[in-house]
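Q: Here's a chain of 411 amino acids. Please give me its 3D structure as tokens.
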Amino acid sequence: MYCGISCRLRVATRRIYIFDLASGAGTLKITDIEVIKWHPGAGKNFIYIKLSTDAGITGWGESYSQADRDTQIEAHVGQLARYLIGRDPFHIRHFMHVAHEDFATKRSAMDLHCALSGIEIAMWDIVGKATEQPIYNLIGGPVRPTIRVYANGWASGSADDIAQKAATLTEERGFNALKFDPFTGPWREYVNREELTEAAATVGKVREAVGPDVELLVEVHRRLAPMNAIRMAKSIEKYNPYWFEEPCPPDNIDAIKEVKENTTIPVVTGEAHYTRNDFREIFDKRAADIINPDICNTGGILEISQIAAMAQPHYIGVSPHGYNSTSIGLAAGVHASANMPNFLIYEYFVNVEEVCRSFTSGYLEPHNSYIELPTAPGLGVEIDEAKLSQHPYKPFPPRNIRTVEDERQWH
């Protein structure tokens, strides 16, 4: 449980919970919220949210985390817990509404939305278990039986190393879509021509290694000013990438639109936008071909579903971002994606799947780039807390943040 919040209520005996949808009898109450930060061994720490109820039903959620910002997200959950305990977990929309209007007084922030997303997902898990339905059945029902995924978290080393790893993933694992960042060096808007040439050459080597039929998803990580993003896009069009992701910083939608209008490659943005409000300008200007909101930071299952619905009449596809665990976060994304007519493909991080699989019952395994929809109630996965505890939270060493002298290398 979050330190300093005294809200754990223990039930002496487990009660059988019966929920009568017609009469509303058997109302559930949230009795406890616990934040579990854990270390996967590389990359970043992950954050799970565990909600308990007076009926013994437990719900699991996940909050997106970022290097050096995980404790801030935990602090938000701790403050939100003061207003969540005692509420009915079925009242998802109302809690999210008052969290924005009353708790946050309409001031948005990534860390807050991460915290709220984890709580919201856990509430849906409880509702699904209480009604004995998978979540996708509660938000309109599936429009597809499987979810297509692309592999990420695999690319490192030299261009030749990356090409070899790409070939291995397609040949041995059957992935038909791969995402990677071909750039080296800090995330700078104004790079030199050699860096663009080197990045383009890496894309070319990967295309040569995997052949023409595997989709290549090129990640830019919000790096470039439009002039450099356009140069890069034009230099790799011949390799027929599936998309060009986040070419420019997210706070200037017109810059992203400029890139979109100057390349034949579909342009993606969205992982650094939160809630429907942030996506409105993207849709109004049709500034991207595809959006990639993250279910663990944009507001959870209901919010990402509404964002997808907003995108649909603009003919904008949805490919949710997923740098979360391949356990809770992935399961939440699979349920939401199953409900989206304009869904394209979901992100799957191969570098954390082994540790996530070790403590997850009902783990959602990809087979030839597809995941079958789970059929168990709620998220359809359960966490073995004893096994999860074998991966306790620990801070990562400080990152290599540039100094003034370091800039000599890049100018």
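Q: Can you summarize the key feature?
A: Residues 137-379 form a domain with the TIM Barrel fold (CATH 3.20.20.120).
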